[in-house]
Specification:
Elements lengths: L16 E5 L3 H12 L3 E5 L4 E3 L2 E3 L3 E6 L5 E7 L5 H9 L2 E8 L3 H10 L3 E9 L2 E7 L9 E6 L2
Parallel strand pairs: 1-6, 7-10
Antiparallel strand pairs: 1-7, 2-5, 3-4, 5-6, 8-9, 9-10
Length: 152
């Protein structure tokens, strides 16, 4: 993990993942594998997500590397518009989010929304497993998005 204290005021633990948005996984692997090592790549259809209050699927191709103390993730959108394609259109390839683990995601979302964050994507897989992307308030020094993960 990291000793970075920038997120201390948000009550978040250490960053456990850094994720990059990419247009094409094959090209991205050629760029990132020399830096991070091999990635495990798989497709995730992610039906039943909530994006900006609307139920949607969030199909993505995911590449993960766990060779170091922080997981590195590559995200390629698969079908149609999504929060990921919106991000790529607005910001291009590069940093998408940093992830923090939290024991009670729904409570943390309410707390972060009160601090000005916007919940842009949410998915509950099981009673104790869920993730969410939250957009930082405008003008803040936090990254564009943070991901919260609740998982035992």
């Amino acid at each position: 993990m990291t000793d970075d204290k920038r997120f201390e005021s948000l009550g978040l633990g250490p960053i456990e993942q850094v994720a990059y948005a990419v247009h094409n996984m094959e090209r991205a692997l050629k760029r990132y594998q020399p830096i991070y090592g091999a990635f495990e790549v798989y497709d995730a259809p992610n039906p039943g997500c909530t994006a900006k209050g609307v139920e949607v699927a969030y199909p993505v191709r995911i590449g993960t590397n766990n060779d170091g103390p922080i997981e590195i993730e590559l995200l390629e959108p698969l079908d149609g518009p999504s929060v990921l394609t919106e991000h790529l259109d607005k910001h291009g390839e590069g940093l998408h989010h940093v992830r923090f683990r939290c024991p009670t995601i729904d409570e943390k979302i309410v707390e972060l929304e009160a601090a000005g964050f916007t919940n842009v994507l949410y998915k509950r897989f099981a009673p104790d497993v869920a993730f969410s992307y939250l957009e930082a308030p405008a003008g803040g020094d936090a990254p564009i998005l943070i991901e919260l993960l609740q998982m035992p």
